[in-house]
Amino acid sequence: MKVIVIGAHSSVGEFVVSKLMENGYTSCAVISDENQMDLMKKRGATEVVLYEERILPTLFNGYDAAIYLTGVNPKAKTGRTVMIDHESVIETVKEAEKQGVKRFVMMSAIMANEAAGDDSREIGAKEMPDELLRQSNLTYTIVQPGAFTDKPGNGKISAAETLDSNELEISHEDIAEVLVMSLETEAAFNKTFEVAEGDTVITKALSSL
């Protein structure tokens, strides 16, 4: 399977690229800065592409699947506003569908359903592209992670449509593993779920969705 990674230049994206290589996938890392090219190649990317809006209509040609890391702007080196994120995801989903991508795995807003206070408006905006993806003809998986940590992954998680606590965490490495393992785990097809560190091996947790 050939997989394109949008947002590969993020902390999670670097782990995604490495884990795709470890699991025998051909990958294309889409980055925002040519200075990131060498790092992506070291991480194991088969191909590295510098994002430009003009390449979007052909970006997915020849690829079977996409992993999209929302909150990582493919167009800029810095963070993005929610509205830019919203528009970018919608553009990308539409083009992936047009260009024949079969699988689309998206890392969505952190615990989108647990938003509260001032954050709720922004999370709500981020739910809009999730809904577009659900309504597309793509076989999708939408993963909503807990708060990120830099600690090493241990390969164990909790995953469910809704998790009990809104103070859950997950390492960059483990969320990357979840995204990659979701590609071919049928129990994760056309599902939206929350994920955080836990006691269940990732493959088993995903198979039980």
Automatic annotation (TrEMBL):
Signal peptide: none annotated. Pfam families: NAD_binding_10. Residues 7-185 form the NAD(P)-binding domain. This is NAD(P)H-binding protein.
